[in-house]
Write a structure and sequence with these properties.
- This protein is mainly beta.
- The chain has two domains: 265 residues, Beta-galactosidase, Chain A, domain 5 (Distorted Sandwich), CATH 2.70.98; 31 residues, no CATH class.
- Helix content is 6%, strand content 46%.
- The protein contains four helices and 21 strands.
- Strands 7, 8, 9, 10, 13, 14, 15, 16, 20 and 21 form a ten-stranded antiparallel β-sheet that branches. Strands 1-2-3-4 form a four-stranded antiparallel β-sheet, with no helix packed on it.
- Strand 1 and strand 2 form a beta hairpin.
- It is globular, with a radius of gyration of 21 Å.
C-alpha cells in the first residue's frame, strides 16, 4: 500500500516494477525482544530473493538509526531515466522505475528523522538511506551499517573473498552454496547468486559519492551483513559528511537468466547523470594496456610513462 500523511500504519510499504515482476517492500517488524524496527524484502515473480532483512545505520556516538521508529510519510512517484551514452552497450538508454520514499522518525531519544528510498525497475530493486539536516543534527558520522541481505541459504554464490578493505581486488571468484561461505570471509561486490527456481541475482551498489564502499560478511542461514570500508586515518569511522547526505544505492539486480544482468543498464541509471555538458569531443578508439608494455617505447620524442603522450602514441 502506498500512502502519504502522518503516522502511517499501513504495511508493508511497497514499490513494484513497471512489469510487476519485481517487488521491494519496507515494514516494521519485531526483532527478538525489541519493538518493531525497519526491515525490507525483495521478491521476483513472487519468489522471495531477499527475505525480511534489517535496515539501519550505526553512528559513531553509539546510537543507531534503525531501532524502534514510526513511519511519518510515504511518497511514491514514477521515474524515467532516459539518456544517450557516448560509449557502452547501447546508445539510447531508457529505464522506467517506481520510486518510494519512506520517511521515518525514531520513537525514543532525540527522535531523529531519516529516510529509506526504494526503487523497483524491471531489472531489479534498490534502496538507499537519506539523512536530512535537522535541529541538533547537522553532521553525519557513520561507524557501520546494520544493513542485511537474507538470501536463500541453498543459493549458489559466486563470491570474491578479499583479505581486507585495501586490496588490488584481484582474487578469484569462488562458487559455493551460500550456507557454506566461511564466516571469516570479507566479500567484495558484486556478489552473484543463482537462486532456487532459476532466478539470478547480483548484490552490488551504485552512486558511491562521499561515502564508504560496501562489502559483505557471511553470517548464518543465508544472512549477509554489510561492512563499510573505514576511513584510512580514522578506523572507527566509515563516513563523515555534513548534512543533508545519503548513502549509495544498495542494489539487487534480478533476471530469469544470467545474461539479463549483463544486458542491464540499471547501475548506470542509478548513478548521477553525466557531468560533461558537451560530449561531442569524446571519440572511441584504441589505446594500450600499460601493464603489458611497462610504459616503454623506443625512439620517441617524449618521455614514456603514465602520461597522455604515451597513451596517444
Amino acid at each position: 500500500m502506498l500512502a502519504s500523511g502522518e503516522s502511517i500504519a499501513a504495511f508493508p510499504v511497497v514499490g513494484i516494477s513497471p512489469n510487476e515482476r519485481v517487488r521491494i517492500e519496507v515494514s516494521l517488524r519485531k526483532a527478538g525482544e525489541t519493538d518493531a524496527v525497519p526491515h525490507y524484502r525483495v521478491t521476483f515473480d513472487g519468489k522471495e530473493i531477499v527475505g525480511h532483512s534489517r535496515l539501519g545505520v550505526e553512528l559513531d556516538d553509539g546510537t543507531t538509526l534503525g531501532g524502534p521508529c514510526e513511519v511519518v510519510s510515504v511518497d511514491a512517484k514514477s521515474v524515467r531515466d532516459e539518456f544517450t551514452q557516448v560509449t557502452g552497450k547501447r546508445r539510447a538508454v531508457r529505464i522506467d522505475s517506481t520510486e518510494v520514499t519512506v520517511a521515518l522518525r525514531e520513537s525514543t531519544g532525540t527522535k531523529r528523522r531519516w529516510e529509506v528510498q526504494l526503487r523497483a525497475s524491471d531489472d531489479g530493486a534498490a534502496f538507499r538511506y537519506r539523512f536530512p539536516k535537522q535541529d541538533g543534527w547537522d553532521a553525519l558520522a557513520v561507524k557501520q551499517e546494520r544493513t542485511e541481505f537474507r538470501v536463500p541459504a541453498d543459493a549458489r554464490a559466486f563470491a570474491l573473498p578479499l583479505n581486507g578493505f585495501t586490496t588490488s581486488y584481484e582474487k578469484r571468484y569462488q562458487p559455493k552454496p551460500v550456507k557454506e561461505l566461511p564466516k571469516d570471509w570479507l566479500l567484495g561486490l558484486p556478489l552473484l547468486l543463482e537462486c532456487p527456481g532459476g532466478t539470478w541475482a547480483a548484490i552490488t551498489e551504485a552512486n558511491v559519492n562521499e561515502y564508504a564502499g560496501l562489502y559483505l560478511a557471511p553470517a548464518v542461514d543465508g544472512l549477509l551483513s554489510a561492512r563499510l570500508s573505514p576511513l584510512p586515518k580514522e578506523p572507527g569511522v566509515a563516513v563523515r559528511h555534513r548534512l543533508p547526505h545519503g548513502s549509495p544505492w544498495r542494489v539487487v539486480m534480478l533476471g530469469d537468466r544470467v545474461g539479463r544482468l549483463v544486458e542491464s543498464d540499471m547501475i548506470l541509471a542509478l548513478n548521477e547523470p553525466c557531468a560533461i555538458k558537451d560530449t561531442s569531443w569524446v571519440k572511441s578508439g584504441k589505446t594500450t594496456f600499460p601493464w603489458w608494455n611497462g610504459f616503454y617505447e623506443e625512439k620517441v620524442g617524449f618521455k614514456p610513462g603514465v602520461n597522455t603522450a604515451t597513451a596517444k602514441y
